[in-house]
Amino acid sequence: MSTDIFRKTYTNTVEEPLDLIRLSLDERIYVKMRNDRELRGRLHAYDQHLNMILGDVEETVTTVEIDEETYEELYKSTKRNIPMLFVRGDGVVLVAPPLRVG
Amino acid sequence: MSLRKQTPSDFLKQIIGRPVVVKLNSGVDYRGVLACLDGYMNIAIEQTEEYVNGQLKNKYGDAFLRGNNDLMGKSTTRKTLTLYSDGFFSFKMFL
């Protein structure tokens, strides 16, 4: 068991996806969640379920309103800032370094 | 690449480094090079592009897709992994 932990900390052989997330600790990341939500914040902690602690977070919720008559789609996004956030892993779809525009 | 019997870990070693498309059941497509994959179907892809209908976002570097599941049973997020081979054949793996 202890050799397993040693390997996970010091290995440079093929790593699991979760090992690569470890490289993003203390960095800003972008998280895409279910229900059209996105988070941008600093990754403080994570686990195998992808539960995460994020600091200095901006959450963006995107909604689509459809006009009854014209059927046109109106995309709205709502943002809010949260200093420290626990994210439950089952809502997470994707984790990446912050997006560059374009 | 042959289709003889091989262990799952041999298979995983073979497909790493290949260009893939991962399609989620939400309809979003992620295209890139498969960096790694684990027994829980978590996937890391490099040079990822996200397609929803048309192209939406470009992600450079690694993108991690969460595997939702149970190893033996059904996933709540169905993912289709399509591997583009050297032209001899291609196959889809349902995750």
TrEMBL record, chain A:
One of its GO terms (cellular component) is spliceosomal complex. Its main location: nucleus. It comes from the Eukaryota. Keywords: mRNA processing, mRNA splicing, Nucleus, Ribonucleoprotein, RNA-binding, Spliceosome. One of its GO terms (molecular function) is RNA binding. GO terms for biological process: mRNA splicing, via spliceosome. It is found in: Nucleus. It holds the Pfam family LSM. Residues 16-101 form the Sm domain. InterPro entries: Lsm3 (IPR034105), LSM_dom_sf (IPR010920), Sm (IPR047575), Sm-like_LSM3 (IPR040002), Sm_dom_euk/arc (IPR001163). Component of the precatalytic spliceosome (spliceosome B complex). Component of the U4/U6-U5 tri-snRNP complex, a building block of the precatalytic spliceosome (spliceosome B complex). The U4/U6-U5 tri-snRNP complex is composed of the U4, U6 and U5 snRNAs and at least PRPF3, PRPF4, PRPF6, PRPF8, PRPF31, SNRNP200, TXNL4A, SNRNP40, SNRPB, SNRPD1, SNRPD2, SNRPD3, SNRPE, SNRPF, SNRPG, DDX23, CD2BP2, PPIH, SNU13, EFTUD2, SART1 and USP39, plus LSM2, LSM3, LSM4, LSM5, LSM6, LSM7 and LSM8. LSm subunits form a heteromer with a doughnut shape. Belongs to the snRNP Sm proteins family. Plays a role in pre-mRNA splicing as component of the U4/U6-U5 tri-snRNP complex that is involved in spliceosome assembly, and as component of the precatalytic spliceosome (spliceosome B complex). The heptameric LSM2-8 complex binds specifically to the 3'-terminal U-tract of U6 snRNA. Binds specifically to the 3'-terminal U-tract of U6 snRNA. This is U6 snRNA-associated Sm-like protein LSm3. It comes from Sander lucioperca. The gene is LSM3.
TrEMBL record, chain B:
It is found in: Cytoplasm; Nucleus. PROSITE patterns: SM (PS52002). One of its GO terms (biological process) is mRNA splicing, via spliceosome. One of its GO terms (cellular component) is Lsm2-8 complex. Plays a role in pre-mRNA splicing as component of the U4/U6-U5 tri-snRNP complex that is involved in spliceosome assembly, and as component of the precatalytic spliceosome (spliceosome B complex). The heptameric LSM2-8 complex binds specifically to the 3'-terminal U-tract of U6 snRNA. Component of LSm protein complexes, which are involved in RNA processing and may function in a chaperone-like manner, facilitating the efficient association of RNA processing factors with their substrates. Component of the precatalytic spliceosome (spliceosome B complex). Component of the U4/U6-U5 tri-snRNP complex, a building block of the precatalytic spliceosome (spliceosome B complex). The U4/U6-U5 tri-snRNP complex is composed of the U4, U6 and U5 snRNAs and at least PRPF3, PRPF4, PRPF6, PRPF8, PRPF31, SNRNP200, TXNL4A, SNRNP40, SNRPB, SNRPD1, SNRPD2, SNRPD3, SNRPE, SNRPF, SNRPG, DDX23, CD2BP2, PPIH, SNU13, EFTUD2, SART1 and USP39, plus LSM2, LSM3, LSM4, LSM5, LSM6, LSM7 and LSM8. This is U6 snRNA-associated Sm-like protein LSm6. It comes from Sander lucioperca. The gene is lsm6.
